[in-house]
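A reminder before we start the practical. When you read a complex entry, don't treat the lines as separate problems. The point of joint prediction is that each chain is placed relative to the others, so the output describes one connected object in space. Small molecules and nucleic acid strands, if listed, are placed in the same frame. In the example below there are four entries. Take a minute to note the order of the lines before looking further.
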Amino acid sequence: MKRRNTPSKEKVLSILKSQNYAMCHDTIAEQTDDINRATIYRILNQFCEDGVAHRITSESGKQFFALCKSCNAGEHHHNHLHFQCNSCEKVECFKSEINISLPEGYQIENFNGLISGFCNSCAPN
Amino acid sequence: MKRRNTPSKEKVLSILKSQNYAMCHDTIAEQTDDINRATIYRILNQFCEDGVAHRITSESGKQFFALCKSCNAGEHHHNHLHFQCNSCEKVECFKSEINISLPEGYQIENFNGLISGFCNSCAPN
DNA sequence: AAAATTAATGCGACAATGTTGCAATAGTAC
DNA sequence: GTACTATTGCAACATTGTCGCATTAATTTT
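Here is the predicted structure of the whole assembly.
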């Protein structure tokens, strides 16, 4: 199935590009001119399939999406940590990658690492 | 608010104890004799508050619960990784703790690290 | 042991998030 | 321009978890 370029996809992509944070559906929707909910989700899922973005599941179970910055086509580096602030709820990517070693016989497909707490803007004192 | 001991709590606790895996609501419910859904969730949330169990959010956003084995009262060690098998969907705790270093001004409250892939029983070949 | 207090439960309704089927629309290749 | 089919919008649905409220029952007090 060959991808087609559409205004909706371009819009969602530009929104993802415009921020340095991982974004959830609502945040993206707010910045669009009424793109249907299902469509936004479908676009985001496509971006993940195509290696354009990656998905982070927050502690509450909500999905966030961020562009793959250090990924080349076919080669993905998703073993970095993410941080979600319990106050402003922003999700950001941390650069440092972590080393994952698995027991014998295990195969890794993906890693979702999320630290939650308070970001430097929201931390008390 | 002082906790009371009830048959439901004992049952849920014994179920958690009986398995070496983190469990989700459904799996627990299957093993009980009709404890209400809301009740099970409330019990599990209490266990987390009280430091008896910890919560793992799976990639799909579903919550899993496991007993805190290496936690003393008041002192919790939750910066270990979890693994969920994409085939059998079991969630297990890995022992090794990971080292988390945060940027200046950030405060950590919790860590949810989940590797997904195939466990040694389900890995192809 | 009975009464009083209030935590825990069951029920139903609800909220939030994400997905799917289907008909209509619109990219893309020719 | 036509044909092909990916994409969209809509509505309905699925799943997961929470909440209010009346009832039940664990624990404390008398």
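Discuss with your neighbour: Chain A has three helices and six strands. What might explain this?
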